[in-house]
Amino acid sequence: MRPEWFPIMTPLQPAPDAVLHLVKCGCSRERCSTNRCQCRKAGLPCTDLCSCMDNEEDEPCNNAIEEEEEMGSESSDEEEEVDVDDDDEDDS
């Protein structure tokens, strides 16, 4: 630690309430395949906050977003941006 830096205690929360109340699961054995998984129960995919994502050597989580799905949603966003740019060129 740099000599001019030192910790300051604060009464504030470590993060906003919305972040502190994020849904995350603690699944390990069942790999999120039942409604005991808090994410699946809430109808949400598991995220990096979940303990099921900690160990890549184990079987993959059954409730995770597939990489292809993530890439598909990103490419559709890019297409929308291109469409908007095309519309702007037509107006000028």
TrEMBL record:
<feature type="region of interest" description="Disordered">
    <location>
        <begin position="61"/>
        <end position="92"/>
    </location>
</feature>
<dbReference type="InterPro" id="IPR033467">
    <property type="entry name" value="Tesmin/TSO1-like_CXC"/>
</dbReference>
<protein>
    <recommendedName>
        <fullName>CRC domain-containing protein</fullName>
    </recommendedName>
</protein>
<comment type="similarity">
    <text>Belongs to the lin-54 family.</text>
</comment>
<feature type="domain" description="CRC">
    <location>
        <begin position="1"/>
        <end position="66"/>
    </location>
</feature>
<dbReference type="GO" id="GO:0005634">
    <property type="term" value="C:nucleus"/>
</dbReference>
<keyword id="KW-0539">Nucleus</keyword>
<dbReference type="InterPro" id="IPR005172">
    <property type="entry name" value="CRC"/>
</dbReference>
